[in-house]
């Protein structure tokens, strides 16, 4: 089935990687077309759309065309049974002069004249028109609940530390691995990645080098009703057997915290992460400098994304695969 993914404008490239990484572990996905905040893909398999974090909506693809061809398209597209309405989403400033309400009415009128049942207040189906460089038409089949991320903000947890990754991005990074088995975070801190994995039904284990942090992470896991699968240990000497995990997601410590581990943290921890990860599986490694040389010794680097947090912190998200 061909699908339209309406992506977050905050980090479109990472949003695409999340869709492709997650859905590839649930079936077969092939990218068809890309546009501003739009990804069109063919997908066959189980639909794990409720796991997506950086996708606003998923729609069943009906058509794509130039803006001037929209009315012609609406005279031809198939009409779903039940009540429906048309909703327009403008992406970018190029459509500022387009009146969304008028366009929705005119396109809805075309469907009504073709025999469609129209209900603006209680539709069974929403036909969405996304206006990017082109126009994309689809039937909405999933909307992401964004309120969940506000409810899980780091400062609402029992144990809080500054500069942690926010839940929405943490969930996306877990999904990039496509994990369906067991995930490890060997430098888990307050437990952000563990929480997001656990709430998606993914089994997890966490390690941290500082006892106070381990106890705080345990409080956070209990707060969300999750198992306290976190131990006090060193990422340079991970206490698990070779190839024990289906994914690794971790955020290397920054600044003074790095010195607490020792100068050999990056290379030795990366070597250990590679050891415990199963072959062919992915690790997402977050760090505050360009660690291509270090990570490239142990993994195939499949992607690299940047996130500017503030003027003195730019995160790098490395998407790695064990050869």
CATH C-level label of the largest domain: Alpha Beta
**Distance N to C terminus:** 31 Å
Radius of gyration: 22 Å
As a percent range, the share of helical residues equals: 25-40%
- Tell how many strands the DSSP assignment holds: 15
In round numbers, the mean pLDDT is 96
CATH architecture assignment of the largest domain: 3-Layer(aba) Sandwich
Whole-number total of structural domains: 2
List the helices and strands in order.
EHEEEHEHEEEHHEHEHEEHHEHEE
The order of strands across the largest sheet is 2-3-1-4-8-7-5-6
Task: State the shape.
Answer: elongated
- Total helices: the number is 10
Point out poorly predicted stretches: none
Class inferred from helices and paired strands: alpha/beta
Main beta-sheet strand count, sense and barrel state:
8 strands, mixed
Would you tell me which CATH topology of the largest domain applies? Rossmann fold
- Tell me the strand percentage band: 25-35%
Can you say what the CATH homologous superfamily of the largest domain is? Answer: Vaccinia Virus protein VP39
């Amino acid at each position: 089935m061909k699908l339209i993914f309406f992506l977050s404008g905050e980090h479109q490239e990472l949003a695409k990687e999340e869709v492709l990484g997650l859905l590839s572990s649930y079936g077969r996905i092939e990218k068809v077309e890309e546009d501003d905040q739009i990804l069109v893909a063919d997908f066959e398999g189980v639909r794990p759309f409720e796991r997506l974090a950086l996708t606003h909506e998923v729609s069943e693809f009906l058509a794509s065309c130039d803006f001037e061809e929209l009315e012609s398209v609406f005279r031809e597209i198939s009409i779903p049974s039940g009540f429906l309405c048309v909703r327009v989403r403008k992406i970018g400033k190029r459509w500022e002069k387009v009146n969304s309400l008028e366009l929705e009415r005119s396109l809805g009128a075309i469907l009504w004249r073709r025999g469609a049942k129209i209900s603006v207040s209680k539709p069974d189906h929403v036909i969405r028109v996304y206006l990017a460089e082109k126009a994309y038409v689809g039937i909405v089949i999933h909307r992401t609940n964004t309120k969940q991320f506000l409810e899980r903000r780091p400062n609402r947890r029992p144990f809080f530390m500054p500069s942690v990754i926010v839940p929405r991005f943490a969930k996306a990074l877990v999904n990039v691995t496509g994990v369906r088995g067991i995930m490890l975070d060997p430098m888990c801190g307050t437990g952000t990645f563990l929480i997001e994995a656990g709430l998606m039904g993914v089994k997890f284990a966490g390690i941290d080098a500082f006892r106070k942090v381990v106890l705080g992470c345990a409080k956070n896991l209990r707060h969300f009703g999750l198992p306290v699968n976190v131990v006090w240990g060193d990422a340079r000497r991970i206490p698990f057997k070779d190839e024990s995990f289906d994914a690794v997601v971790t955020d290397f410590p920054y600044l003074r915290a790095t010195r607490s581990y020792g100068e050999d943290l990056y290379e030795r921890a990366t070597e250990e992460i590679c050891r415990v990860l199963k072959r062919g599986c992915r690790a997402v490694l977050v760090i505050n400098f360009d660690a291509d040389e270090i990570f490239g010794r142990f993994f195939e680097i499949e992607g690299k994304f940047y996130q500017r947090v503030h003027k003195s912190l730019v995160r790098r998200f490395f998407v790695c695969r064990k050869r």
